[in-house]
Amino acid sequence: MLVVDCEMTGLEPDQHSIVSVGAIDFDHPERQLYEECRMWEGAKVEDEALAVNGFTAAEVADPTKQSEANLVHKLIAFAEGMPDTTIAGQNVFTDLYFLKAAAVRAGHTAWPFAHRILDIHSICWTHMVKRGVTPPVDPVKKHSALNLDAVLNYCGIPEEPKPHNALTGAKCNAEVISRLLYGKKLLPEFEQFEMPW
Predict the structure, then answer these.
(1) Which one, of 121, 167, 129, 166, lies nearest residue 145 by Cα?
(2) CA-CA to 80 of 20 to 30 Å: which in 7, 48, 72, 114?
């Protein structure tokens, strides 16, 4: 399993760009990747996205940073040789769509990742229901309120530090997957936090 988190300049893969990616080989969690890049030329930048990921407009356009194309090539190279490259994470379909759009822009013709994903939201929702816990619902939007911070708290871990960092996000994702699926801790950064079940 390839646990991934991306930070972007917005939420639309055809309009916005990846600016950083974090990845962890779940079977060998010491294998980690963190890469930053400049946005592709012509990409839109949303102030709200920069507020979340902590980058400035100058940083995401920095011409000395590698291209988005190079970043996606490095992620693909990182995954080579893994026996299972199923992508996992929180709302990971968004990360997958962005990575695939970046690969298309890069002219990468050997896209190695499948459309099948493991999404933390669904894993946690199922874990809660099986334990007899009612998953939280946003009272205004009337849908699940299981964002990553809620999942972290459910698993006994404090909220993700802000601004968001792609590697920190990938580590949080990998840790909660291990706790929810296998009932065990994974990374030393989270050793001090006990599972509440």
Answers:
(1) 121
(2) 7
